[in-house]
Amino acid sequence: MNTNLTKLRAIQFKAICVISALILSIASGMAAAASIPSADARRLQPDRSMLLAQNTPSNIGKINNDLNLPKIGADVQITNTKSLTLKDAIDIAFRNNRDVQVARLAVDRDTAGIRSAQADQALQIGLTSTLQNQGSPVIFGTQATTSTNSNVQGQLQATYIILDAGRNSSSVRAAEDQVKFSKLDLLRIEQKLRGDVTTAYYDLQAADSSVIINQASITDAKRSLSDAQLQEKAGTGTKFDILRAQVQLATADQNLVNAQGQQQTARKNIAQLLSVDDNTEFTTADTVRELGDWRYSLEESIVLAYKKRPEIQQQLVNRSISQQQQIIAAAADSPQVSLFANYNLGKTLTDSTSAQDSYSVGAQLSWSFWDGGAARANSDRQKVNQEINENQLTTQRNQIRFEIERAFYSLGTNKKNITTATQSLQQAEESLKLARLRFQAGIGTQTDVIQAQTELATARGNRVSAILNYNRALASLRVATVLVE
């Protein structure tokens, strides 16, 4: 008996030694693998010599050009000048503007969201397959053997939800409303871009007209200087008249330089909006003229804006989305019923038994009837979101009305200013002619000529400003009511 017990203990001691040695060998192997970085890890680790070289004084201050930026001045030198109409400018902006491109991608993204929501309502079919090998060591005496068993199993399952308290259908409607919101946002961004480009184009027209007006002022000032010099030679003029004409010419030169500077700024502004290359600048091809009439009254314009403005529609869509989200949140603690069908197939590979299969069909009820109040809280949150959308709708409506009223009153004011400025320009041109004739006849003064020149330049500028301000107000009304003509 003692001899058998001693042999049994010896066998147990040997088994323990074998298992301990096996565990130690596995652990040492894992530690060695962890201490030696892999090839990918060695590639990711920076070389210390390279880091030291990068921080040497000779490399401090050097900037790597990894953004494809221009490297020399010739890369950003203006080499191309293009004349374009307002319509051309808007078309280019719509093609190049990044915000518009992102908004279009958002529409595509949300459209895919509809398909994703619809897929949750469809029949779900899945396949699961398992291949496993099971075994256990058996020790007989001093010999260790292993008993193994290999199995392969597969399961085909189909599930279809027939009752979910409106969760899936609300998810689809919410996804559809999200697409509507994205399309409205695209329209909003396009309308804003249209307004910005139109304003920049009119600013460039104003700058170009200012250059032309000041060039005409220089021509008039040179003519006055020539008349004063001729009068001085004929003995009917004085040196004082010549000095006054020279001062007037110098002032006109300075005004032209300032106008040319504003012109360059306006060109850069519209080029930035159009997102063109660094080597092109633009000039206006359209002449400064009235671009049409507004055929709606103030009240009709306000109502039209309420109907068509994307911001108003977006708030309504947001409210609808919140309503669908409320239904989804409330359905979290509601019962869900689904139909299912399973087919199972299994085979033991280590023996000659045939494969075993089975199937099951039924209905399943799932009901999380207590979740600590999470479903109720999420539903209440969506109700608050609906109230927020209603308040934002009121604020947006008031802002739109103010935009319409401001543009409408500006349109009427500048319409009258155009008539007044046109008459004033004709009178200023006639006044300058008479002032020159009087000065040449010796019955007028150089001061009268200079005053007439100043009034003529002012009248020219006032007429251009009145026309452009009228066009700006007209464009604002068209943008505010989403009417493109």
UniProtKB/TrEMBL annotation:
GO terms for cellular component: cell outer membrane; efflux pump complex. The keyword Plastid does not apply. It comes from the Bacteria. GO terms for molecular function: efflux transmembrane transporter activity; porin activity. Residues 1-33 form the signal peptide. Keywords: Cell outer membrane, Membrane, Signal, Transmembrane, Transmembrane beta strand, Transport. It is found in: Cell outer membrane. Belongs to the outer membrane factor (OMF) (TC 1.B.17) family. This is Outer membrane protein. It comes from Chamaesiphon minutus (strain ATCC 27169 / PCC 6605).
